[in-house]
């Protein structure tokens, strides 16, 4: 057990490690097309330089006593980038199996200390802002959200902006949003799908969630800016997503094609939102009962309000945070439900009962009453959370006592120190599929939510984060997905293929495309 939880043997540091590393870096140019290796000569030059630096590194690096086991430390700078790029969750799971609930992975010059499992994750979610900083960890999102917004603002300003967001997503606003979402979904499927056909479900739900979220955020006037079926804004947001990849986390401003397209798309989205804002400011007598209207009236403690650039950035952040996670989760929900026919029949039976109870109307109360459907959504989030890693920067040395059970039933503890400067991370995708936390954790079992498995340990479910930084849009996201699937189930019979593996080319992981679905309109609605 001690060997399992200890650091890799130091005597294994030798030149053969760097020869192995030489081969790994050569592989990078074919694995990551967005890494800029323009010619074989440059590749050779870079590899030789890194080999020399690696040998020097071999004799100069000294581990800090009491720190977590470090993986990838033998390979200077690059560390575990190849494994991380291929399948980050598998790397985290392998490290958990070998080293326990705390370990450090070296990736592109950064030390990322992972806390896996409810006990370890409590350190992450219960920490004070003086210990862990979300703002410092997510600076790579500044090119997406824009200047002066959230992670590009002082901590106290960031919290005030989050307060504005929480107020705008209040229960009263959510209740008004459900009929809007249902109306947009029905109109979309009627105009776009027709009677029968085949579609790529991830794309379709991406377009639809852009439509529904934009309407709820910015009202009916936003429709003219969305393009046909919401495709214009959906395509721009897709460029933002593509620009947020594993490389952008470490180097957010590299002059790479994907990041250039990200910046161009961000500028265009900003122009669209600022046009809506200017139109509203030019007509101050017109009331707007939507999320943008609430934000426009919000005031900082000093009495000032968001300027147009900040307001546009807040809208970009809100739509980005909600739209792509909702479309991905809605797709996973459909895949998993339709590949488990008994679960699907239970959801359909519940839908019929709810529809009769509420006279066929889709309202906040009818969606709230659809408990089995919600269990499916939350179970999909447990198995395939879109955000596979959550991060904070360590501002001061922190301590954690890891406890494990030995084969004889006794327990062993090890005290660890996480140094300031590390990135502390938790992985929803890895931790919510631990067999020692959830029974048959890799199995889609919505009924576990009725059994209360999620309540057995605090921070066992972290789909929406937790603690002081929990996602303020959780209820909106869940209700949006439930409403869309209510419309789909009552209108169409669907034939999904098998469940595909996750796609880890982005930091927001969805099912690997294409997700093809055959559909046929029901002769009479459910």
Rough outline: globular
Strand sequence of the main sheet, in spatial order?
Answer: 1-2-3-9-6-4
The tally of strands reads: 13
Strand content: 5-15%
Q: Please mark out the parts with pLDDT under 50 across 5 or more consecutive residues, or reply none.
A: 1-37
Distance N to C terminus: 57 Å
Q: What's the gyration radius in Å?
A: 24 Å
Report the sheet with the most strands, covering strand number, pairing sense and barrel closure. 6 strands, mixed
Structural class, from secondary structure content? alpha+beta
Portion of residues in helices?
40-55%
Description:
Helix 17 packs across helix 20 (371-383) and helix 18 (341-357) packs antiparallel against helix 20 (371-383). The chain has 23 helices and 13 strands. Strands 1-2-3-9-6-4 form a six-stranded mixed β-sheet. It has a three-stranded antiparallel β-sheet with strand order 5-13-10. The longest helix is centred in the middle third of the chain and has 31 residues, at 308-338. The protein has helices at residues 2-5, 15-31, 40-60, 81-86, 88-99, 118-126, 134-137, 142-145, 155-168, 171-192, 201-218, 223-226, 231-242, 246-250, 257-281, 291-297, 308-338, 341-357, 364-368, 371-383, 428-431, 448-451, 474-491, and strands spanning 70-71, 102-107, 110-115, 132-133, 196-200, 390-394, 398-405, 411-418, 423-426, 492-496, 502-503, 510-511, 516-521. The chain is an alpha+beta fold and 526 residues long.
């Amino acid at each position: 057990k001690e060997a399992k939880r200890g650091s890799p043997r130091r005597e294994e540091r030798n030149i053969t490690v760097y020869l192995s590393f030489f081969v790994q870096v050569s592989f990078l140019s074919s694995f990551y097309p967005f890494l800029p290796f323009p010619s074989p000569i440059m590749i050779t030059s870079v590899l030789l330089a890194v080999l020399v630096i690696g040998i020097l590194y071999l004799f100069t690096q000294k581990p800090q006593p009491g720190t977590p086991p470090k993986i990838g430390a033998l390979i200077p700078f690059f560390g575990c980038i190849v494994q991380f790029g291929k399948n980050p969750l598998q790397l985290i799971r392998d490290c958990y199996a070998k080293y326990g609930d705390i370990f450090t992975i070296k990736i592109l010059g950064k030390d990322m200390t992972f806390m896996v499992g409810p006990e370890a994750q409590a350190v992450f979610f219960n920490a004070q802002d003086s210990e862990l900083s979300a703002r410092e960890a997510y600076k790579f999102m500044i090119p997406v959200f824009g200047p002066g917004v959230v992670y590009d603002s002082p901590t106290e300003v960031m919290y005030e902006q989050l307060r504005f967001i929480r107020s705008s997503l209040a229960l009263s606003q959510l209740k008004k949003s459900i009929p809007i979402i249902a109306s947009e979904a029905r109109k979309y499927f009627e105009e776009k799908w027709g009677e029968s056909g085949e579609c790529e479900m991830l794309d379709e739900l991406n377009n639809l969630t852009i439509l529904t979220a934009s309407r709820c955020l910015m009202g009916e006037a936003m429709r003219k800016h969305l393009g046909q079926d919401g495709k214009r804004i959906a395509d721009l947001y897709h460029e933002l997503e593509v620009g947020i990849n594993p490389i952008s986390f470490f180097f957010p401003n590299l002059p790479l094609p994907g990041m250039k397209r990200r910046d161009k798309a961000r500028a265009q989205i900003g122009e669209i939102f600022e046009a809506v804002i200017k139109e509203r400011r030019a007509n101050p007598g017109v009331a707007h009962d939507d999320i943008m209207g609430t934000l426009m009236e919000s005031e900082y403690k000093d009495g000032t309000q968001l300027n147009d650039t900040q307001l546009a950035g807040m809208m970009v952040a809100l739509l980005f945070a909600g739209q792509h996670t909702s479309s991905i989760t809605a797709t996973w929900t459909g895949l998993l439900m339709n590949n488990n026919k008994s679960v699907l029949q239970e959801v359909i039976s519940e839908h019929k009962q709810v529809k009769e109870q509420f006279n066929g109307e889709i309202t906040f109360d009818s969606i709230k009453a659809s408990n089995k459907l919600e269990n499916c959504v939350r179970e999909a989030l447990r198995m395939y959370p879109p955000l596979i890693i959550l991060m904070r920067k360590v501002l001061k040395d922190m301590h954690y006592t890891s406890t494990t059970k030995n084969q004889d039933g006794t327990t062993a503890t090890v005290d660890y120190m996480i140094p300031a400067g590390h990135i502390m991370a938790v992985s929803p995708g890895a931790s919510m599929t631990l067999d020692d936390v959830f029974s048959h954790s890799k199995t889609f079992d919505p009924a576990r939510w009725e059994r209360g498995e999620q309540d057995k340990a605090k921070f066992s479910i972290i789909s929406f984060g937790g603690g002081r930084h929990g996602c303020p849009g959780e209820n909106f996201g869940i209700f949006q997905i439930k409403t869309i699937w209510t419309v789909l189930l009552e209108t169409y019979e669907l034939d999904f293929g098998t469940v595909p593996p996750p796609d880890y080319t982005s930091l927001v992981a969805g099912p690997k495309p294409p997700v093809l679905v055959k559909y046929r309109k029901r002769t009479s609605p459910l």
